[in-house]
Amino acid sequence: MPHTRSGSISRPSFAALAALAVTALSACPTPPPEETPDAGEVRPDVCNSLEEALQLDECHLTLGQKKQAWLSFAGDEDWYSFTTPADANARTLVHVTGGYPVANTAVNLSFNVLRADGTSSLVRKSDRHGQAKPQPIDIILPFAEANQKLVLLVSDDPVNPSKPNFDVRAQYELAVDVLQDPDVNEPNDTQPTEIALTSMSGVQTGTQTGYLATENDVDTFRIDGGGAKKVLYLHITGPELNPPPPYQLSYVLQDAEGNIVADGTMANALIPVDLATARLAPKPPYTLTIKGHLPGDVTPVPGDLRLQYQVEVRILGETDPSEGPNQNDTADNATVVAIAAPGQSANQTGRLGYAGDQDWFAVQLASNTAPTVLHFKLTPGSGPARFPRLPGFPDRELRVLRTVQTGGTLADDQVACRDDDAVCPRSFGNDPELSGLHQELCGAQVPRCLHSLRREHPEFEALANFEGTIPVPPHTGTVTYLVQVLDQGNNYADDVDYTLAIDWRADPDDAAHWSGGVEQPRSFVLAEDAAAANFPHPPSGQSYELSGRLSHGYAYFRDHDPNDGDGVRGPADYDAVPSDVDSYVMTLPALDPLAGPLDRTWELEWEVQNQPNGGAPYDLVLELEFCDGDNLTPGGQCTPVKVGSRGGPLTLSYTGDKRNAWHNPNAPDSERQPVYLRDASGPATVTTAAAYGCFCFEPRFIKGGTLKINVLGVDRSSYADLPYTLRMAYTDYPKSYATDGGMVSCPPPVFPALDGGTDDGGSTMPSGCWFTREP
Predict the structure, then answer these.
(1) How far apart are CA 611 and CA 372, in angstroms?
(2) Beta partners for 455?
(3) pTM score
């Protein structure tokens, strides 16, 4: 006789069930013959209704014991009951676990815990695994009522309600247990648990523990500590678990007015819990809320009975030695660093003692009528600290700024700061971040020009890139440069003293050539090396040499990769004036075009003095501007030539690579040689234009009569103030260079000048020297 179940579903006979299984179990793989139930097997089928769950002993679950059963036809449901213990209290938890212990099943198993009326659901969880492996179900339900009978409904939770799933082969498992919440502070979801503080050596400390044991569990704590010039240090820790907890632990810290002071969330659940902050705490008491988080703010958030977290609190005084009674957290309260004259220096000590802390220093330079440079260097200390460095990636930053005051309106100051290079120099190009920062600083109520920026990078240990030298123009009256030390993300502090060294240096090299408010080009007449006895090296001596110093700027890149920690410059660093520039105007020889070809060989060499520990502090880049005497302007002047045959800039800089030269653009690898020679074995690093490069002056440039050279720094490795020397001469052309097959001449000129054919681009080729030809 068929048994009518709750929901008015008639139970079919086993024969009908077998027939149905043939067509309805398409989502379930066909089992091997030995796993298929025998046609004559009779399975007991009870616990099919709320009434049976409440009345039948076999439907009453024994706490802590496993139960197994089938959901063996479409719409099948199993009902069970259990009773909470007589000593249930506010920390009592009902723990329901279960699932299908097989690799696959079509059933999306669902557990629903209800009151004895069968309609009031307390919690429901499902495993909608689809085609994946079934996952266990874990329910943790706070339930403080003693001797209460509860009901557990087990069923399928189909994606499509019209097509419920079942499994005639595999049994599900379930178990119900009742235990105490390991969190001794429960319930504290809304009523905070106090973190008691005790004082020792001027520091108040307190600890607490907790668990997020249940679904959407929230733990709150009260911290009765803080006040004016007080710092609240908070550290939340917890062990690494395997498998990991089903949530990422997070916290929110609020002051007495409900303002969020700090918050944080673990990046993932696979690593030990480690969240910390240190904040100014002027408005006690503080409320700490700890809860679980899922990506995308998905709810509900499962609980976990294994993860015990620890909370540590310290209330500290703000003891930054640089701040004094008025602090120096703003530009208006900056610590004054007065320096009376070039050649003098000052050291300051500071500390980032809490997240969001900033230190400002106002470096006041007395009146000075010559160009000078300002050198700065920040060196972190090693401790001791009153709390461990806050976790996460430190992103400390140093800025050097100057307030813009034109004497006009605020709008005038803002426009001048933003657009006038004479007021606020710029070198950020198209960098959107630096451009945005420039706009922000210049558009403020107190416009400030960014002269230098240093940002922490992991490849530069101990903030090795937090150093620089900026130019200081002549000035009447005191000028002030602001040095700001901060954490870019306002979430880092280490509570360790650092040292800021400020050094105001004279710049006699630039001062000797300063006139009219700018550094003037230096004139030089190119001398002849008729004998060329040491070719390709030019002679030494005053007639052949130019000397200078590149005193400021972090220099340009060539071989250095700032992402690897090369040199002094980090990848996000900035100098408004990247390099000191020394300019030279060189007079080329006046030659008679009727006496023979005008082509001349250029002997070129430069050297930079090495540091005591070896290696030059920087290398040179030479920017060239020739003058084309064959192409006159309407005013009769020669036409400047700054680019090569393919439009590239005419710049010279060392490379040790074997390359094609202008005279052999299509030469195979076997014929290539270095274009430069280098010797760093002596007191200076010497770079020489190799004979293979066929460095030369084209006839049109000899006719033009001048060559302008800008000398800039590249690949700076230190800010040591050491000199460089350019050594140059001209001699006859062509010269020869050595190859494995013997000596080879640079392309000789034809006199009178003839068409030398075309290059691979179709351009007319002059005979002889074509130095501006780009390979």
Answers:
(1) 22
(2) 397
(3) 0.82
